[in-house]
């Protein structure tokens, strides 16, 4: 087969590239190693032991929110709805009963995962306590400290203070990230990009000033979120990579938001497999399955210079090649020896490891355990079942299918595999015992709660096969999930022409081979500036409006795959004339907003505070109370669904700047007023001429520093 363009991979990235080529009347073919569409997206219908008509589940990525454009517009659009009703009418059926949080306009195949949990307020997290021992923290979502959703009550004030401080640190770093060129990020003297890239996220969490105030509980609170996002431990990834990844996805506290308007509010009853079929319907005959590529070679003098040799010996040739798979997966192919080092470095990175399971029951027993309404949303840091979520949906007959979805990641998978191998028992039975006993413990504190131990069916998939170039296994071409992740040094260490590997991530090799994937997604049609922008509203807002650049929006997610495919296809189509589209930018103000100022003051103040030899764990309870009050405000207000720690910190920052609360400012000043060096560092870094922020600094420093 000779083609103008061959695309490797029929996931979201490959199909998006194909759609762009199709719209521009290009000649192309797609080669897919497996026997299905989707790559890391794998929709399936349960058939063994359980019939669920009109419902499919996902072994790959699953959740979607309104912020995920253009994917949201596809699944909610009339063309997809009409196509689904025509070709798969069983998947379009009445939704579960409406609640006040459901939207009338939602198509019946979209499940509001947030709304279905509303009536059940109890959750649980397993975190280390102050004695460094794992402990269950059951809590009511309406009775959380300082109205922070997802934060267990009973963790202690020092842990609350530590979570507030490290969250300000995270917000500050994100606000300084240049998403387009993370190696060029400017942190105003708090860090350098190279420093953050030289250490792991785990090392960052244990560096000063955090090692002077982080408790085991606070460390686990951040760890469990990082593990859930990337299916790796914080010790495996660069700190700069982690913060860059977060900034490209609306921020860390947006990524972990599973509530209303969050990125994981909905899932599709019809499965994303149907979306992939819809996307590819106009070029489905151009997709060739079970095409395993052994090697790629290049002869630039030939009419079709790119040569692909398949595992069965067949040879395909192309003028151009789009490699639309993750870097880790691309590394399974033998590439030309002269391929640039930058591409080799990216392909040499490891991938997360995820065991995702759907555990089906006769009843949603977790919704009522001795009168307690558990919402099925629980987990534990470094726990064998990292996270559970209620994945119940009604089938085509209106019958609810109670289901808990579970995630096990990284080292816990290794331990599970070793345990199953050692036991010598049936692997399916061993997996059932493993999952059910840990589900039981999450919700009851006991390992043998009978309703939890007797599921009617379990389906599980491990995106973690240890395959290499010579050891392909059926369906194991992915090699992990959800993403290829970057170790320390990848974003900043020079490997070619004095630049890092990432600097070449979106650059075609010799204008012949275009490597692209959601991990390095670039938006062909960005609408916001390169770095994080602070929008100066026309009138005062409750929370300062911030908007992250969409140059690399949804990095690592399904939407990122769509952006990546379109970008690479346009590079190929336009050739030397390629240009990213530019829009007339709205008026942005580059001044610091309130939360960034507050974060900077705390970071510098805490550094100086700890340099004087005073650790937060030895200061008095009243001082801790004052510190928390300065960070988070009044604990006595009635809690509703107010939002996560990021939202609360932004609200608090605005309160401090807009009020005359001298007590709170004085409490903050206890941290900030510890040395002349602190004053100078803060004032040197603070460049805003916003009168309210200047006034805030005057109030903070009082007579100790001339304004």
Automatic annotation (TrEMBL):
**Chain segments annotated as coiled-coil in the UniProt record:** none
Q: Which InterPro entries is this protein grouped with? A: Amino_oxidase (IPR002937), FAD/NAD-bd_sf (IPR036188), Flavin_MAO (IPR050703)
UniProt xrefs under Gene3D superfamilies: FAD/NAD(P)-binding domain
Provide an example Pfam family for this protein: Amino_oxidase
Q: Which domain of life does the UniProt lineage start with?
A: Bacteria
Q: Which GO terms describe its molecular function?
A: oxidoreductase activity
Q: What are the Amine oxidase domain coordinates in residue numbering?
A: 12-464
Q: Which SUPFAM superfamilies match?
A: FAD-linked reductases, C-terminal domain, FAD/NAD(P)-binding domain
Q: Which family would the database say this protein is a member of?
A: Belongs to the flavin monoamine oxidase family.
Its name, as the record gives it, is: Amine oxidase domain-containing protein
Biological source species: Pseudoalteromonas rubra
């Amino acid at each position: 087969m000779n083609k103008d363009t061959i695309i490797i991979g029929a996931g979201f990235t490959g199909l998006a590239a194909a759609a762009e080529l199709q719209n521009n009347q290009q000649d192309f073919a797609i080669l897919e190693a497996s026997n299905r569409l989707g790559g890391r997206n794998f929709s399936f219908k349960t058939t063994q032991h359980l019939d669920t008509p009109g419902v499919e589940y996902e072994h790959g990525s699953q959740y979607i929110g309104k912020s995920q454009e253009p994917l949201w517009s596809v699944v909610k659009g009339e063309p997809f709805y009409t196509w689904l009703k025509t070709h798969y009418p069983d998947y379009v059926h009445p939704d579960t009963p409406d609640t006040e949080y459901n939207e009338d306009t939602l198509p019946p195949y979209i499940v509001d995962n947030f709304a279905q949990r509303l009536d059940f307020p109890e959750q649980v997290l397993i975190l280390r306590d102050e004695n460094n021992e794992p402990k269950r923290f059951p809590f009511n979502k309406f009775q959380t400290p300082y109205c922070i959703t997802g934060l267990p009550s009973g963790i202690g004030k020092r842990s609350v203070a530590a979570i507030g401080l490290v969250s300000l640190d995270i917000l500050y770093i994100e606000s300084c990230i240049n998403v387009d060129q993370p190696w060029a990020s400017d942190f105003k003297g708090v860090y350098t990009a190279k420093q953050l890239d030289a250490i792991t996220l785990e090392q960052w969490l244990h560096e000063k000033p955090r090692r002077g105030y982080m408790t085991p509980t606070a460390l686990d609170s951040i760890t469990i979120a990082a593990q859930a996002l990337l299916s790796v431990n914080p010790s495996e990834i660069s700190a700069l990579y982690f913060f860059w990844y977060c900034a490209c996805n609306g921020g860390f506290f947006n990524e972990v938001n599973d509530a209303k308007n969050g990125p994981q509010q909905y899932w599709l009853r019809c499965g994303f497999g149907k979306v992939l079929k819809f996307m590819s319907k106009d070029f489905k005959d151009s997709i060739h399955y079970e095409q395993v590529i052994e090697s790629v070679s290049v002869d630039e003098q030939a009419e079709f210079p790119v040569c692909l040799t398949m595992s069965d010996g067949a040879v395909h040739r192309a003028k151009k090649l789009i490699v639309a798979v993750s870097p880790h997966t691309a590394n399974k192919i033998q590439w030309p020896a002269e391929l640039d080092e930058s591409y080799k470095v990216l392909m040499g990175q490891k991938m997360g490891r995820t065991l995702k399971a759907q555990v089906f029951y006769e009843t949603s027993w977790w919704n009522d355990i001795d009168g307690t309404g558990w919402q099925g949303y629980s987990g534990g840091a470094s726990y064998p079942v990292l996270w559970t979520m209620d994945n119940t949906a009604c089938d085509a007959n209106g019958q609810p299918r109670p289901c808990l979805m579970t995630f096990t990641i990284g080292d816990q998978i290794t331990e599970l595999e070793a345990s199953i191998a050692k036991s010598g028992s049936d692997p399916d039975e061993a997996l059932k015992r493993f999952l059910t006993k840990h589900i039981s413990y999450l919700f009851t504190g006991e390992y043998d709660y009978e309703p939890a131990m007797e599921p009617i069916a379990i389906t599980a998939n491990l995106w973690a096969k240890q395959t290499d170039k010579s050891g392909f296994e059926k369906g194991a071409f992915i090699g992990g999930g959800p993403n290829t992740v970057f170790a320390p040094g990848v974003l900043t260490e020079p490997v070619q022409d004095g630049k890092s590997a990432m600097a070449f991530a979106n650059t075609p090799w010799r204008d012949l081979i275009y490597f692209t994937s959601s991990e390095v997604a670039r938006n062909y049609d960005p609408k916001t500036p390169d770095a994080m922008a602070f929008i100066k509203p026309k009138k005062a807002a409750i929370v300062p409006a911030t908007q992250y650049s969409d140059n690399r929006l949804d990095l690592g997610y399904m939407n990122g795959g769509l952006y990546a495919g379109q970008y690479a296809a346009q590079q190929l189509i336009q050739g030397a004339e390629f240009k990213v589209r530019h829009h007339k930018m709205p008026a942005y103000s580059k001044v610091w907003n309130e939360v960034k100022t507050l974060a900077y003051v705390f970071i510098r103040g805490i550094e100086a505070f700890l340099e004087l030899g005073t650790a937060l764990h030895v200061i008095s309870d009243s001082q801790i109370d004052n510190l928390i009050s300065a960070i988070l405000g009044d604990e006595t207000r009635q809690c509703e669904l107010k939002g996560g720690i990021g939202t609360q910190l932004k609200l608090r920052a605005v309160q401090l700047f807009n009020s005359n609360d001298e007590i709170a400012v004085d409490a903050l000043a206890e941290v900030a007023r510890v040395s002349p060096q602190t004053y100078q560092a803060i004032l040197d870094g603070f460049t805003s001429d916003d009168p309210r922020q200047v006034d805030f600094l005057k109030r903070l420093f009082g007579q100790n520093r001339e304004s």
